[in-house]
Amino acid sequence: MKKSTANAQWNKGLKDGNGEVASGTGNFKANYSFASRFGEDKSATNPEELIGAAHAGCYSMFLSALLEKANYKPESVSTTATVHLGEKDGGPHVMKIELNTEASVPGIEDEEFQRLAEDAKANCPISKVLSAVPEMTLNASLKK
Fold first, then answer.
1. For position 115, which CATH number holds?
2. CB 3.0-4.6 Å disulfide test: which of 32, 38, 50, 55 passes with 81?
3. Same structural domain for residues 13 and 76?
């Protein structure tokens, strides 16, 4: 079984504090804060942005794998995941994730592409982990 790790350090209180998240490999490191999570500070990341990156990456790879399994040769799959943080039961809650993907796949018809795109949304490992999110949408398009 493959294991992956990440770590986070938080200093001080919620609103006056700050922290850093990093991947276990050391390939990624970023700051985060209350303002970057709940406000408009764009100088740091936040957990929801990292969830979006993980979901977009997993989805793109999984869709590519499904396309290959169906005997297509994808040239590219580009996905943006938008994670909506709202409030539920008096606290922060991930309310929705929107996946927007565009792929270049020679020879595939849109109906077949949509079927495989939906399959990837339902079955990529990160989608499965995020199944508690109340709403997950997909907009998939082929590059012309």
1. 3.30.300.20
2. 55
3. no
Specify the number of domains making up the chain. 2
Residue-wise pLDDT for 115-130, tens only, equals: 999 999 999 999 999 9
Kindly tell me if the per-residue pLDDT of 70 is higher than 90.
yes
Residue written as token pair 């495989």: 116
- The closest of 93, 89, 76, 78 to 38, measured between CA atoms, is 93
Range of the structural domain that residue 112 is part of: 47-142
* 83 lies in the same domain as 132: yes
Per-residue pLDDT tens over the stretch 82-112: 999 999 999 999 999 999 999 999 999 999 9
Nearest to 126 by CA among 71, 81, 64, 72: 81
Percent of the chain whose pLDDT exceeds 90 = 99
In a domain, residue 1? The reply is no
Check whether residue 69 and residue 20 sit in a common domain: no
Instruction: Please return the burial class of 48, using the count of CB atoms within 10 Å of its CB with bins 0-12, 13-18 and 19+.
Output: middle
